[in-house]
Amino acid sequence: MKKTGFLAGAAISTIGIVICKVIGLVYVIPFYAIIGTQGGALYSYAYSIYNMFLNLATSGIPVAMSKVVSEYNEVGYYNTKERTFKMGLKIIGFLGLISFLVLFIFAPQIAYLIIGDVKGGNSVEDVTMVIRVISTAILVVPFLSVSKGYLQGHKIMQVSSVANILEQIVRVIVILAGSFLTLKVFHLSLNTAVGVAVFGATVGALFAYFYVYAKIRKSKSLNRKAKPTLAEVKITNKDLVKKIIFYALPFVAISVLQSAFVMVDVFTVVRGLTGIGYTTEISENVLSVIATWGSKLNMIVMSISMGIVMSLIPAIASAYAVKNYDEVNGKVNQALKTLLFVCVPMATGLCFLSSAVWTVFYGYNELNSSVFKLLIMSQITLSVCSVMVNASQSMNNTKQSIIALGGSLIAKVLLNVPMMHLFNLIGIEAYYAPIALNILIDTSASLYLLYIVKKDTRVSYFKTVQTIIKIVLCTVIMVLVLSILNMFIPSYSHSRMIS
């Protein structure tokens, strides 16, 4: 296996991510047509819970593995970096097993927290089954993640990218073929079809892991059998564990907080809306849009905007390390301006065309497209918040990032259901409340982090504010043009083809 230079590695990683995102976006069209709205809600329950526990099991460890392996590789401590890899596999295996057992054993209780005694949609038994099926992936994915981190520590990027694509392709094949055969050929139940579909995560991870494992085993350039030097003998396994945990903890904390944010909606939206008087079908529809199906379309905005901006984060870190605050000022403003230049017009355009976009991917649904209309606009504040969290981390301000995200999570937990009741009281559809609250919270967290960065590095946002005004004016003009065109050319139809 050949090592990859920085630019080539970044290009390979970006191409891999884009291919995976495209596959992940396109497959939902036939899949949603197969399982329908109720099946889509059940699928979203499984993946929302799975992502939370997967983050608990894997967040930070692969990044830490990459960093530690890279450090020891640079100084020629080849035996120590192999010990680090083995230690990382043991740690991640233990965390994965614990997460799997918790998820598998307590699946009925988790399902009840989501559904409660609500009738007329998916049952507690249905949700329990799909959670247990997808929990098996947590036994495999952690090993895959650490193995990819190990290779990335050697600056070998192409294997991870190929593994990501392979995992996605296999997963999608299982999802589509499995759900179609289960429902249309064998005429089994909907929950069985969704169970087969979510098992695709396990199958895809297995294929990818065997591929990465084979590459590592066959490679002769990794110095896997090197003898320890005298200096390496002094480095104990305890030292390695401490180092892995030290590097991993900030990433774990931030990733878990971000995942928990989504989990609040999973545990409160259905119960909150049915408590107000909405039907179970409507409540599950809304949650599936927020937690899964709408977020897949949001990837259009997130992937492009974040891909542009994240390349600037290492530059911010480098400038901050040498206390070049003028450079930090320039890069932070450049990141924000680039993000908003791409994100605001794109999100606004998708909002304007929300019915057509939703119809193309999932078929016509007035309720879901109206929820998506607000959800896509929330990506603007979410993108800004994500960039500021990353920028803050790159300037050794992980503590402030955790405070911002922790405060956001507390606000979400305390206000999600009350906001639904408030919206209902003032005559606004209550299902908009969780998204509106997200916008408010993300804005508050972004303002807090903008203030912290300004205080620590004397960053001035004057030029960014000027750019924002120009972007808003151009976006308003775009909306006016689209509105005029819409008077002559309908922007949506009940037909996928016409949309």
From TrEMBL:
Localization terms from the record: Cell membrane
Pfam families under this entry? Polysacc_synt (PF01943)
- Recorded topology in the membrane: Multi-pass membrane protein
Lineage of this protein's species? Bacteria, Bacillati, Bacillota, Bacillota incertae sedis, Candidatus Coprosoma
Entries under InterPro entries matching the protein = PG_synth_SpoVB, Poly_Biosynth_Transport, Polysacc_synth
A single GO cellular-component term from the record reads: plasma membrane
**Which keywords, in A-to-Z order, does the entry hold?**
Cell membrane, Membrane, Transmembrane, Transmembrane helix
The regions listed as transmembrane in this protein's record are 7-35, 91-115, 127-147, 168-187, 193-214, 244-264, 297-317, 338-364, 370-389, 401-419, 431-453, 465-489
The scientific name of the source species is Candidatus Coprosoma intestinipullorum
Name of the protein: Polysaccharide biosynthesis protein
